[in-house]
Amino acid sequence: MDFSELVQEAISTLTVNKLRTGLAVLGIIIGIGSVIALISLGQSSQASVSNQIESLGANLLTVMPGSQRGGFVQGGQGSATTLTLSDANAVSTSPTVTDVNLVSPEYEKRAQITAGGQNTNASVIGATPVYSAVHNVSVAMGVFISQQDVNADSRVAVIGPTVVTDLFPNVSNPVGQSIRISGQAFKIIGVTVSKGGGLGSVDSAVIVPLSTAQEVLFGVTNFSLSSISVQAKSSKVMTEAENQIGYLLLNRHNIADPSQADFTILSQSDILGAVTQVTGTFTALLSGIAAISLLVGGIGIMNIMLVTVTERTREIGLRKALGAKKKTIVSQFLVEAIILTFTGGIAGMLFGVAVSLIISKVINLPFTISPGSVILAIAVSGAIGILFGWYPARKAANLQPIEALRYE
Amino acid sequence: MISVSHISKIYKTGDVETVALDDISFEIKKGEFVAIMGPSGSGKSTLMHILGALDRPTSGTYILDGENVENLSDDELAEIRNRKIGFVFQAFNLLPRTSAVKNVILPMAYGGIEKERRNEVAEKYLKMVGLGDRMNHTPSQLSGGQMQRVAIARSLVMDPAIILADEPTGNIASNQAAEIMAIFQKLNDDGRTVIMITHEPDIAEHAKRIIHILDGKINSDSNGHKQRVVKSKAISK
Known about the structure:
A: six-stranded mixed β-barrel; B: alpha/beta; Rossmann fold; 10 strands
C-alpha cells in the first residue's frame, strides 16, 4: 500500500464521522490559531513600539545625570544635579566630540497647568530651539521656542495636542491664549503636531524655554539639567558618539573610573533593546499559554484515535488476516492522525492570521506575520499528529488478528 | 500441501491450563475438499486459527505449501496469510462503506500487486462469483449471500494455496447457502484446496473428506470413507 492510497483511505475513513472529525480538528485549530495570533500580535506590538521609539528622534542619545554609582545606595535617575548646561555646551563645542550633530539640553518636571476653569498635570519641558530637530517635533500651529525666548527667559509655551484638549476643549486654535504653570502665567505660542500616544510622547507635554524652566518655574541652582539629548551624525557612529561624550563628561567631572560615572548615556538601541525584551517576554509567555491549548488539542486527537482503534478492532483484525503488516497498520493510523492535525494546523493558521489581523485593525497596530511562525505552525501540527497518533497506531498494530476478529 | 504433526495448543488463564488441541496430526493434499466438524468447544476454531496462520501452536509442526510456519514473526505470518491463504469468514468481514471491488482489491494492496493490475484481477473474480453487475455496491447494498460471494472473490485474488472457510454459510439464508456451496464446489473442481469449518452436517456433506474434532482430538477422519462420518455425527450429537 503506497502513501497516496493510505491518504485516500484515511480521508474516506475520516469523512465517515464528520462531526467527530470536525471536533477533533477544532482542538488543533484553536491551539495553532491562538499560538499564531499571539506570536503575530506580539511581533506587531514590538514593531509598533519600535516605531514609536524611533519617532522620538533619529540617532538619539540621551545623557542623564546620576545613577551608575557604586555602593549600596543609588540615587533615583534624574534626581541628581550632576549634569549642567555647561556640560551640554561642552558636548556641542568640544573638538574631541566629532560624531555629534545636535545637542539639546533639557530640564523636565511635572507641574500643575491651569487655563480658565480647566486644569491638568503635565510634564513641563524646558528646552532650546534645537529640541525640535533632535526630537523630531514640529508645530502644527504657531511657532516653536526661539533662541530669543531662551535668552529673555520669556514666559511662552508650546503645548502638545493632548494638553490642548484637556485645557481648551472648545477652542480650535489656542495660540495666543494664556495658561498658568505652577501658578505663573504663560502665553501659548505654538501647538505641536500629534505624534500618537505612547512612550515619552510630547503630545501631553508643555515646552517652555530652558532658562525659564530653570530659573522662573523650578528655581534650579547651578543650571543643572534633567537630560541632554544628543543627535549623533548617523546611526553607524552611535557607539563612537557615546564614547566621545562619555570621555568628555568623565574628564569634566574629574572621574577616572568609568564605573563611577555620575551620569548615564542611553542610546535608542538600549531603550529599544529593553522594550523588545519586555514585549518578547510577554509574547513568549502568552504563546506558552496558547501552546497549552495546542497540547490539549493534541490529547483530543489521541483520545479520538484511541476510540477509533477500539471501534475498528474487527477491521484491524481483518486487515491483518488479509496480510497487513504492523508497519502498514501503524502508517494507516498515523496518516489519519496527521491528516487531522495537519488540516487543523492549516485552518488554525488561517484562523490565527485572521484573528491577529482583526485585532491589529481594532487596536491600531501594524499587522505583521512572520513566515517563521507559519512554518512553525505547520511543522508543529504535523509533529503533534505523529506524537499523539503514535500510541494509538502502535496499539492498533499490536492487536492479535484472532482477538481482533473475535471482537464484538 | 498441508502437514500438521503433533500439534497442541494450550491456553493459560492464571493457573488454569485449557488444552484446546491435543497432539493432532493429519495431512491434506492439494485439491482436497475437507470439512472440519465438531461441536463448540471442540477445538475446531483453534485448529482453524492455526491452519490460517492467525495463531501459533504451543507445540508441534505445521507445514503449509512447503513452508514451516513455526517460529515466524507476526509480520512473516501476515505475509504467509496474504500469499497462501484465502479467508472466508462467517461474518463476511467486508470493510463497511467500501465498494465490492475495493474490498476485493485489499489483499492485493497488502501483497504489493501493481496498482494497474488490481482492478482487472478484482473484476475477474467478482465476475466469477456472479457479481459482475454489483462491483461498485457497498456491503450495505448487498444481501448476505452476495456479501459472502464478495468475500470469496477477495479470498481468491492472491491465488492462495488453500481456501479456508469458517462457517461460510452460518449467517446466510438457506437458499443462498446453496449458491455459496456451489461456488466452493466449483473452486474445488478447478483444482483448489478448500478447508471448511462447519457444525452443520448437510454443509459438511459437500466435502470429500470430513475430519471430526472432539475435545481437542481427531475423533474421526473419513479420508474418503463417508460412511464412517455418518456414524461419528451420531456420536457427536
